[in-house]
Design brief:
single chain; alpha/beta; 19 strands; binds 3-isopropylmalic acid; Acnase/IPM_dHydase_lsu_aba_1/3; 3-isopropylmalate dehydratase large subunit; lyase; metal-binding; iron
């Protein structure tokens, strides 16, 4: 019997000819990523179980990325980065994207920012490979045709010591997006549509295989937006088959060899769903769950207090480009926070131009708050002094991935998840707004 893309990758990574859903197999990791939130815990378990002097299985396959609680005076958050630094030094870790000068991130050439985007930009996400990460949005890298999933600290410590992990093969759900993408829709609308359709537990421990003409035409950043939120439907991982778009992105960042894998034509799926994207509309996820979907035009009376554009899901270069396209030449009516995912995205804001103006100039002329230092920032609240944290019971339209109570700080705050177009349109009016009103 044929295999899905996820099954093909996991079969290869376990040295098997065939695998099927439900089977438990030992999988070899190509890469393990951890960050400042989970790294210290993972290191603690690793040392306890493998010994104080134990060495990681491969010092070139562990990537350490401080990104979550960086620009804060919180002593425990600062200490977490120190723990990563000490471990990187002791183990001779090749890829440690350190930050020492918190007062000026630009003084830290190694510092990248949000792990999922940094992994892609630094060439660590490659077709056919297996990536484990101590973060639920590790599924982001499935956009590169790899198996990428979030794991807990204990599993990560085991991978750190052995390079392997026992995994149950997930059954695959196929989502096919065909048709011409309307100019007012972005990848975020597509994934919010899916999560609204199947629910936050609609894909629990399943692999989402994303395909179709509309996906084939998408850039890597838009593909990442879709895979990033697979976890919001409970997905174990998501995959998009690699193509020329993937190869161009990866090859411009790494010369490491990789083997692209593809689903067999006769693979079996647990579920198949087709979408005609030309018929979809801009959507939001209302408080307090990513599956609480509504058409933007049905919630236009909701007044908002602020807009947040940032995170692994919605803080990439194209996310800002799309927001800038819509905002250009107009004034925002509510405080609008801009948090580039990485140092590279930050630089893009100051070099990419639309009609002669840099994205940053467009935002500043429109009255947005100056772009912040790259990190996860207010996406998940963080210490009280975190930039963009929602400290009051405000209504926020956000390009991020989660809107659980308290997610961005205050438990009474109401977070509406939206595309960069919808976030930008809403910033211009002060209420939730369909981007078509400005197109
Ligand atoms: C802090 C980390 C464990 C968490 C995750 O795994 O997703 C965070 O990144 C998030 O987005 O909620």
């Amino acid at each position: 019997m044929g295999m899905t893309l996820t099954e093909k990758i996991l079969a290869k990574a376990s040295g098997k000819i065939n695998v099927s859903p439900g089977e438990n197999i030992w999988v070899n990791a190509d890469l393990l990523m951890t960050h400042d939130v989970c790294g210290p815990g993972t290191i603690g378990v690793f040392k306890r179980e493998f010994g104080e002097d134990a060495k990681v299985w491969d010092k070139e396959k562990l990537v350490l990325i401080p990104d979550h609680y960086i620009f804060t005076k919180d002593a425990r958050a600062n200490r977490n980065i120190d723990i990563l630094r000490e471990f990187a030094r002791e183990q001779g870790i090749k890829y440690f994207y350190d930050i020492t000068d918190l007062s000026d991130f630009k003084a830290n050439p190694d510092y990248k920012g949000v792990c999922h985007i940094a992994l892609a930009q630094e060439g660590h996400t490659r077709p056919g490979e297996v990536l484990f990460g101590t973060d639920s949005h590790t599924c982001n890298a499935g956009a590169f045709g790899q198996f990428a999933t979030g794991i807990g600290n204990t599993d990560a410590a085991f991978v750190m010591g052995t390079g392997k992990l026992l995994l149950k093969i997930p059954a695959s759900m196929k989502f096919v997006f065909d048709g011409e993408m309307p100019p007012y829709l972005l990848a975020k609308d597509l994934i919010l549509q899916v999560i609204g359709d199947i629910g936050v537990n609609g894909a629990t421990y399943r692999a989402l295989q994303i395909e179709g003409d509309a996906i084939a035409k998408m850039t890597m950043e838009e593909r990442m937006t879709i895979c990033n939120m697979a976890i919001e439907a409970g997905g174990k991982n998501a995959t998009i088959a690699p193509d020329q778009t993937t190869f161009d992105y990866v090859r411009s960042r790494t010369d490491k060899p990789f083997e692209s894998l593809y689903a067999d034509a006769d693979a079996e799926y647990y579920y198949v769903k087709h979408y005609d994207v030309s018929k979809l509309e801009p959507v939001v996820a209302k408080p307090h769950s990513p599956d609480n979907r509504a058409l933007v035009r049905d919630v236009q009376d909701v007044k908002i207090d602020r807009v947040y554009i940032g995170s692994c899901t919605g803080g990439k270069t194209e996310d800002f480009y799309h927001a800038a396209q819509l905002i250009k030449g107009q004034q925002v009516k509510v405080p609008t926070y801009l948090v580039p995912a990485t140092q590279k995205v930050y630089n893009d804001l100051f070099s990419l131009k639309i009609d002669g103006l840099t994205l940053s100039e467009i935002f500043l002329q429109a009255g947005c708050i100056e772009p912040a230092s790259p990190s996860c920032a207010g996406c998940l609240g963080g210490p009280q002094d975190t930039f963009g944290r929602v400290n009051e019971a405000e209504v926020c339209v956000s390009t991020t991935n989660r809107n659980f109570p308290g997610r961005m700080g205050n438990k009474q705050a109401q977070i509406y998840l939206a595309s960069p177009y919808t976030a930008a349109a809403s910033a211009l009016t002060g209420h939730i707004t369909d981007p078509r009103d400005f197109m």
